[in-house]
Amino acid sequence: MLAFHFDTRLYHGYAGDTLASALLASGVRLVARSFKYHRPRGVVTAGSEEPNALVELHDGACREPNTRATVVELFDGLRARSQNRWPSLALDLASVSSLLSPILGAGFYYKTFMWPAGFWEWLYEPAIRRAAGLGRAATGADPGAYEKVNAFCDVLVIGAGPAGLAAALCAGRTGARVILCDEDFLLGGRLNADRREIDGMPGTEWAVRAESELRAMAEVRILRRTTVFGVYDGNVSGGRCFGALERVSDGADTLRQRIWRIIARRAVLATGACERPIVFGGNDRPGIMMASAIRTYANRFAVAAGRQVALFTSTDSAWEAAFDLAKAGVNVTTIVDTRREISTELARKAEGLDADIRVNARVTGSCGRNALTGIEVQDKEGRLTRVRADALGVSGGWNPNLALASHLGAKPRWCERIAAFVPGDTPPGLVVAGAARGSFSLQDALRQGAAAGAEAAAATGFRSTHVPHWQADDELGGISPCWRVTQSRGKAFVDFQHDVTVDDVLLSWREGFRSPEHLKRYTTLGMGTDQGKVASLTGNAIMAELTGRSVGDLGVPAARPPYTPVSIGALAGQDRGRHYRPTRETPAHGWAEERGATFVETGHWMRARWFGLSGELDWRQTVAREVAAVRTAVGVCDVSTLGKIDVQGKHAAEFLDFIYVNAISTLRVGRARYGLMLREDGFVFDDGTVARLSAYHYLMSTTTANASLVIQHLERERQVYWARCDIQIVPVTENWGQFAIAGPKSRLLLQRLLGEAIDLSNEAFPHLACAEFSWGGSVARLFRVSFSGELGYELAVPARYAAALVRALMAAGEDLGVTPYGLEAMDVLRVEKGHISGNEINGTTTSADLGFGEWLTSKKTAFIGSVLAKRPGLMEAGRCELVGLKVSSGHLNAGAHLLPEGASESLENDHGYVTSAVLSPTLGCIGLALLKNGRARTGERVRVYDPVGAASTLAEVTAPAFLDPRGLRLRG
Amino acid sequence: MTGQLQSSSGFARCSLTSWVDRDVRISDRELSCLVVIRARAGQAGALESRMRARFAADLPKGPGCIRSGALRFAGVGPGEWLAIGEGSREELLPSLQLALGETAAVIDQSDGWCVLRLGGEAAREALMKLFPVDLHQRAFTLRDFAVTLASHIDAMIWRAEDSIDGTPTFDVAVPRSYAGSFWHALSRAISP
Questions:
Q1: ω before A87 within 30° of 0 (cis)?
Q2: Checking DSSP bridges between strand A420-422 and strand A413-415, what pairing results, if any?
Q3: CA nearest A257 in B: which residue?
Q4: For A76, phi and psi rounded to 5 degrees?
Q5: What 3-state class would DSSP assign to A252?
Q6: Neighbours of A547 (CB within 10 A)
Q7: CA atoms of A111 and A583, how far apart (whole Å)
Q8: Strands (E), A450-578
Q9: Fewer Cβ in 10 A, N or C end of chain A?
């Protein structure tokens, strides 16, 4: 026995039960309150199409709202709670809204809560949402785990009923790779629900044998509790992509669910069919369910849905259910059939049945408070009688489960024989078998399944020599559809989950919303979590009747993925929290951690922001120390994240001339140069240095942020416009660990470290020199470049040696005061020097705005952006130009606006904005800004107005370079 | 400084060495060499014949790889191959440069990628959680090579020689900076 809780009570059930079957066995019939009217509701189906019996499973952070009790496999300790009721399920105060139901029809909210319009967002909508609704989402972080898996197969079989098992057996026997998925925890589909025979053995036995044969096949994978929820575009690796959700375990803090991305070369859709109701007044009372569900609960779970079971049908299948129920010992008291007459065959079969049989009759009402106690039957003469019943099984026919067949846009086709839609032209590679294509007999399901499985395998190169024939017993399948009972009493529900009634469909018709898609959106018919599996066709059939059209002409709303709800956690899979996106670390990351670095995320990269020492009060103090070290001694900064691109070939120089605003071809071997590149539209794109390592070999550097964009940019040029030229572009960022060594003592430090490997004298290795040489058992590259404005170098070694290199730098420079510095210090240093970075290259600035206007006009050859950079708007006077700002009192924020001194804060007076602001330990509060006609305004005072910080201060306009504008320090 | 710089693996900060799982064996192929070969304009034919002469290898025309002694050549793009070897790149790089001369640009990427070798019963199953590539014995042979994404990370995968017990062995390469993230994803894939 398994113990479980539903709301506050303890119940018991058996292994193999679903939550729904265990509740029914325990006599629980009221399991939920409806979405809109809070009406009492019970279990309606025995499958994944269940609209009513939605519960919250688990507690706290693990809570899963809207879980269908009909698919939850019972386990010991299960805790479930009813939803959308207060204070309790049996006494739900909000059910008074039922009294208002005559005015709460479709569209009511939108028509009523229109004035004042502003109230909608903060009052009406929240109030309506609180009153209507389903379960509550968990608020804590989910302690369970989820994962995603890729799978490939030759044949995917969706559904493990008789057709699916036959298909999997036939495909599997050929040696093809087969994946068989079923939503249920037990394979067999309706073989477990009906008393049938195949080859003289019980259907359940046949299913068990089929499963054990499949389990023994090496290339067959069986996925139980797995719903294929969508078919997706794309002919991936010669197959089609399917999404499937596996409910791995019921434990709350273990691996809960797994998403399968299945690429299948062929697929067999054997998803069966759902029984549909007949709509009549009071048809939602707990105890009224599908005839097939009553049959399933009796045969598979040994649960009687009631002591006095009545059936209301327009099909033979409900009679077959009655025969099964009688065999199982369930007391069937009454059968009401809407058809004028039943076949002689059926009548003969029904002879042994001890039930009150009423043909050409209908159920017109039901009674009972929170559960069914009786029904009202109208016979062919119009006489009304009351019949006692505590369960009513309804059958209006069967709808093939064809959602997956229409996910890629294939239109379903109306089939008059079964009065339902069947798959039309299915996507290539997808074959439908059995009940899913409207073939409801067991014999057809087995035959079609076997053929589909064998053909699908053959299409992938696995031929079978023999397709087996399985012989099934007979069952009657006549139907003459009845969608609704017109003269009935009380609310007649079409869509249980969204509380859509026949009156709502009528209203929709009156208001002109008559196409299936309009009906759906106006009434919300079929928009619940069950996506209208039970309701949609019936609603459209009623609309067809109202409009005088056939259902086939009217159609049904398009089915879209997912077939059943998929939790967001499963879609996220392993990639949660910190691992939502991957992280990049430089090869010296561990060293920076050891030095106590505080990191900042820049894109995927983790970069050291500063290296705090104990005793320092705040980061400003740390940064000031790091800046001072660079200006007076020597600092080391990890610049491995900057993009590095290897460009080779006979046309490389010409190509780079085309990429950059300034000329690169004039660069000598062993020299580097600053370069600026534009986008096609003439605005500045990126900057960096280019080094010429040999005649046909260049190394570009880019900013960290644009490293991959520049590669795309270059590759597009090379592949599209320079396709015949000799250019090879390879990104090599990952291969190198690179460090900036800056400060007056940087040469001394490097001389100590590199020794004889390279001559670093100013004559041999001047500013903007570069070299590649052997050192420390490795290749090394040295560039004399400076972002800080100090004498500076960048030293690169293959990444595996980077950590060793930075440790060696620290050891060699200990007595020189060598100091690691981070991004913040680097920012202070470059602002002091007036160097631009991403703040200034912000997509709105031209090369002239940033002070490189001469390059644009002096260069003779064309380059990317050269034409559009000369557009009038980009050339005219009055643009914002790069300037420095110095504040004597108060402080500066990036983003603050610049106004003429004394001017009021209005748009007309806006003369630009601050792009970068830093606190320099020696120069105080300084910044870079883009100011209208800025270069001509040096010495002027402007007002810095920051509406966010609500601060206003005065600043002096200066040239961008605050420090050493002539560059004496970096050439020293 | 005198002496040699000490090398460290991209996976040095992952608890790779302490990894023990009865179904998955993992080893760090720290000494793998990866060298990009890009044909110079108009030199594809000459490159192919030099490859044939020096390495007795027909470069693959599409995605896939071939072996020549301890070396493996993989097609990773139009006119672009990757030479993968073991041991000293100080030998591999000059030998390729010498053999190919003016026919190709030869660029060392040995430190740009980190390579792990995975073997054992459950290796394939774990990799299928990360790689959108069919790694089935019949679909992914010793001649296959995939450049793809694994758990949002650029990745390459190929098969090494099967282990003695007959189970397949895979080599996977990821950019060095992503080694930590990849290792996290892989270890979660092995034991969720």
A1: yes
A2: antiparallel
A3: B192
A4: -70, 130
A5: coil
A6: 13
A7: 51
A8: 493-495, 500-501
A9: N
Contacts of A727 in chain B (CB under 8 A): 41
What's the Cα-to-Cα distance from A608 to each of A144, A284, A641, rounded to whole Å? 33, 64, 11
Residue in A78, A97, A79 with CA at minimum distance from that of residue A38: A97
Question: For residue A405, what are its two tokens?
Answer: 């067949």
Provide, as residue numbers in chain A, all residues whose Cβ is less than 8 Å from the Cβ of B129.
Answer: 147-150, 574
Using the beta-carbon criterion (under 8 Å), do B5 and A777 form an inter-chain contact?
yes
pLDDT of residue B18: 59
* Structure tokens given for B135: 């790694």
**Helices A317-328, A291-299: inter-axial angle, 10-degree rounding:** 30
pLDDT at A238: 72
Q: Which residues of B touch A584 (CB under 8 A)?
A: 175, 177-178, 181
Q: Which of chain A's residues have a Cβ under 8 Å away from the Cβ of B134? A: 152, 237, 263
In chain B, % of residues over pLDDT 70: 96
Res. A414: pLDDT tops 90: yes
Say how far apart CA A432 and CA A405 lie, in whole Å: 8
Q: Read off the amino acid at residue B18.
A: S
Q: What ipTM, to 2 d.p.?
A: 0.97
Most A-contacting residue of B15, B134, B140 (CB-CB within 10 A), to test interface: B134
Q: Position A518: which residue type?
A: H
Nearest to A71 by CA among A54, A89, A85: A54
Q: In residues, how long is chain B?
A: 192
Q: How many residues does chain A have?
A: 972
Q: Which residues of A touch B185 (CB under 8 A)?
A: 574, 579, 582
| C-alpha to C-alpha distances, A125 to A40, A105, A113, A615, B83, nearest whole angstrom | 24, 17, 9, 54, 63
> Looking at the partner chain, which of A589, A735, A753 has a beta carbon nearest the beta carbon of B111?
A735
A65-93 burial string, b = 16+ CB within 10 Å, else e? Answer: bbbbbbbbbbbeebbbbbbbbeeebeebe
Give the type of residue at B86.
E
pLDDT tens, position by position, A510-568: 999 999 999 999 999 999 888 899 999 999 999 999 999 999 999 888 888 999 999 99
Tokens representing A940?
């002027």
Q: What is the pTM of this model?
A: 0.93
Beta strands A374-378 and A362-367 are antiparallel
Mean pLDDT to the nearest integer, B81-94: 89
Contact A759, A751 (CB under 8 A): no
Residues near A740 by beta carbon (within 8 Å), at least 6 away in sequence: A635, A636, A637, A639, A787, A788, A792, A793, A794, A826
Interface probe with A: pick from B111, B115, B127, B174, most Cβ of A within 10 Å: B111
